[in-house]
Amino acid sequence: MKIDQAIVDKTGRALIERGAFLDDFHIEYLAQKGVNGIYIQEGDEEDPEEINAEIAALEKNMPKYTRELIEKERVEDRSKVTISESVKKQVGEGVQYLFNNTNDDEHFAESTENVSKELMHAVLDNDAVAFDINMLKVSDEYTFKHSVDVATVAMIIGKNYGLVRDQIHDIGVAGLLHDLGKTKIPGAVLNKPAKLDENEFALMKQHSLFGFQILKDKQEFNEDIMRGVLQHHEKINGSGYPLGVGATKIHTYAKIISVADVYDALVTARPYKSAFTAREAIEMIMAMTGDLEMKAMHSFLSSVVLYPVDSVVKLSNGEYCKVVKNDPAYALRPTVVGMKTGRLYDLANDVKCTNLIIG
User: Fold this and answer.
1) Interatomic CA distance for residues 317 and 319, integer angstroms
2) CATH code of 176's domain
3) Whole domain around residue 14: which residue ranges?
4) pLDDT tens per residue, range 237-260
């Protein structure tokens, strides 16, 4: 079922956006919040071709004053990570080599450094402070794509978190290698197209420990990188694994990688689950205050460009709008201009827009 009306808190902040698909996670979440009933959408989905045609017509017939307002209010997005197709290919192949050659003690660290340098260039040398979450996805192969995406997002989060250059480099290495221990998990378990049973999940939960041990045996990775790998599934409230430690004993790298890891896992389809939309994933992360460190979460949210400037979105009042400005503090609520009415909607700051969301 598809939710037809946003679920909002007392301040008007959307807890679950209109159009989200209802699943067990949502039902449990709503029950915890005391929500006893919701509206759902019925009927056929909107035809994408019809939507595109409608937007094209609005673009063509936009009044002059609307175009002028858009130009006046338009603010370029913050510098975003850009990775060329050739670099994506090179990085993807590099990570694949690392995962397939964990016993290559002679070249493993060197190969890791070569891959991390490419990401360092994309993040630091280009002064990137944000990422367009629609532009990630380095490879179609889950393990390698996930590792590179997590490393890239973790480096951007780390930059906004306040880490210095050497730390951003190291967290990139830890992000690339955070799932290295999965090479020790039998393929039948790792690639099972269904929910793991209790014993299989217990084994899977050891992968971060296996990864830590692989790096420790090589004696070429510093303690910070190894702890980032070891603790990336630990939770602030102490309910994580493999050690079950709480906030004060979790390394900063692990706290940051955890946010990047959770996000990328949510938006990636797997044989046993569908992908959440980027917006749904962000909402879910915002609700994980018991699992994720707040500073790392806020650094992630300030890094996200969900609706790039010049993109077209549809508000819950039915109006198509052009995005003209993003607010780093409110990834879900940019400033937009109605293409038909020419109305300016400052979704983040205008109290008159409290009940409006992007549908």
Assistant:
1) 6
2) 1.10.3210.10
3) 1-45
4) 999 999 999 999 999 999 999 999
